[in-house]
Amino acid sequence: MSTEPSTFDGNWHVLLAGLPSFGTQMALAPGIMLYPLNSPLSVFDLAAAGAAGFRGWAALEQFAPFCTGEIESMSIPDSLTRSLPTRMYLDN
After folding, report:
1. What whole-number distance in Å separates Cα of residue 82 and Cα of residue 21?
2. Fewer C-beta neighbours within 10 Å, C or N terminus of the chain?
3. How far is CA 30 from CA 73, 76, 81, 86, in A?
4. Separation of alpha carbons 38 and 32, rounded Å
């Protein structure tokens, strides 16, 4: 029996802890966005993530007060994935 969630939109979400608070979202690169958290994470937020299939939610309880944002990497077609590092290098 699989314990993986039945739906996956292809996007990855990464919590950021220890960064100074920031007010607005920003694009870090094509397909990669930085979003501020509107309010501190609660144990109920983490439990909801656990109910949605995130198995390590209880381990994050100690870090929840320090989380200030998230990075979302959006799913992009394979044809763009191969050229993305080159474009990021040339843009900088």
Report:
1. 33
2. N
3. 9, 10, 10, 12
4. 19
Strand order in the sheet with 67-73: 12-17, 67-73, 32-36, 26-29
18: left (phi over 0), alpha (psi -120 to 50) or beta: left
And the tokens for 31?
């397909």
Instruction: Assess contact for 69 and 16: CB atoms under 8 A.
Output: yes
Joined tokens for residue 39: 């309010």
pLDDT in tens, 44-76: 999 998 898 888 888 888 888 899 999 998 875
Supply the pTM of this predicted model: 0.64
